[in-house]
Amino acid sequence: MGIHSLTKVIGDNAASALKSNDIKTYVGRKVAIDASMSIYQFLIAVRGQDGQNLTNEAGETTSHLIGMFYRTIRMVENGIKPVYVFDGKPPLLKSGELAKRLDRRVEAEKNLEAAKEAGDTELIDKMTRRTVRVSKEHNEECKRLLELMGIPIVNAPCEAEAQCAALAKSGKVWAAASEDMDTLCFGTPILLRHLTFSEARKMPIDEFHLDKVLDGLGLSQDEFIDLCIMLGCDYTGTIKGVGPKTATSLIQKHKTIEQVIKNLKESQTVPEEWNYAEVRKLFTHPEVLDPSEVDLKWSPPNEEGLRQFLVDEKGFNEDRIAKGIEKLKKGAKTATQGRLDSFFKPMSGKSNGTKRKADKKPGTSDSTSKKAKSGSKRTKTK
Amino acid sequence: MLEARLPQAALLKKIVEALKEMVNESNFDCGDSGISMQAMDSAHIAMCSLLLRSEGFEPYRCDRVISLGLSFSSLSKVLKCAGNDDVVTLKAEDDADTLGLMFESPKEERVSQFDLKLMDIDSDHVSIPDQEYDCTVHLSSAEFARICRDLSTFGASVVLDATKEGIKFSASGELGRGGILLKQQGSVDDSSPTSTRIEMREPVSVTLSLKYLNIFTKAAPLSEVVTINMSSEIPVLFQFSIGDIGHIRFYLAPQIQEDD
After folding, report:
1. Does B130 contact A367 at a Cβ distance shorter than 8 Å?
2. What pTM, to 2 d.p., does this model score?
3. Among A105, A246, B47, B161, which is disulfide-ready with B251 (CB 3.0 to 4.6 Å)?
């Protein structure tokens, strides 16, 4: 999934790029969410006490719908405007990774059978989680649910995170939300992680700023992509004997993979048929819909439709759904709350994250006069 | 170092009480012309700024710029140890990690000394663009607090409509709807300082969150009058003066009707 140990590389080199925030900080923000990733999470995480997926009376899985319904409500309640982006066809380059995942799933299924025979409940639980896959039906049901909830969806032609990044880059949304770090390679200015996690986990939302990542690493976007390929992505192999640290310093020194290859030690071997150039192209020119043609519209929920779908068809508790709808309607109102950020710009020339003591702030004397409102108060040094 | 003496602890108490609901912790920037503070709430919907000019203290001394990271709840606790009429002296060394507060009773028979630990706070200062407002309303701060409280029973947000005749506050919700109109007082001569006055270029209507307004009105004890500066679709400025020595300003982003 994503880029191997990129989070650590960012933490080591560009700590200021990562901020952890409470969900409340995102009032009024439009966010593009990688839907397939979320559904997958829900299928894994939303489970009953026996460790099995939640099902209705007819035995159909409902974990994904419950997850989608409640986690989306949580966002809307907090004034966030979500857009869900669904995967299209996987890129050809990913077939290797996908085959590996399938193998793992088959393996897990085998283990599951064995575990069931042996009666090892812990192993059964572990293995059932590994056999999870998002089916077409899951996707379709979630799309239907979201439409009824009045939440816009986008069908990406290819990878959802690439589309999320494109939407964020164009300013259609403020940030892309995915657990997949390669969203940064696709060029999203801001990446949010853990946005769709359950409230009970008390997990703060991690906010990555691409510009600060690049700043901290001292790389351009293209060099950053090369670094990510070297760290290990979903699409191709990596150089043997080059871990995160070496990869970072190699790219910082040599700038491109081509140059890095020329300067490798003997012990470090490049994989056979290493198609990094194609992967690079996939990151720089992903197959996405033109953001300007994507129309995002948030509408009030279709109460009757939701009731029919969730209560009549899926056998959900009517009261709970009614409560959820109430929250959805209420949340839609607070989403119109404006933010000061759009009016007041952060002071320029002041780096964030510096320790207060080390940093004698200039110009404070100015700030006490009426002129402080002119906005130039921190540029004067004394 | 900083040394500032304030004749009445009550004033400092009121300031801290006014701000502590909105801000947990913030940096107080002390310079030769006074003390200032700026803080945004975590959701970035509202901001407050505090200014205390050096002239308001007797005496005031600060030869180098210092920034004091303070927790408002701790500060409030320490100030509870001061009597309203006590004289407060604030002291901090240039590289100090504590703020010294000394309270002297009016007859000088009791002197208490507290040192409050400072915090390292990352501050994101923002610049506020110079703004000409379309409409400025002066009204009684007690009246304003009451209106916000009363309308909270009706809804989560309030609509402010300012015209030449007066300013109208209205809210609606499940209970029904409510509206309060304050009329502009006629002649200038006979009006008291707290009577409603409106200066305007054009009528303005804005929708604001009552939750925040009810936090702002905690500053009402500081000043009899609150000044509301507003234009359509930009943050509304609420100003409470602190005597002649400074002010507290609150900015609140309006709620926007989106068409997309």
Report:
1. no
2. 0.73
3. B47
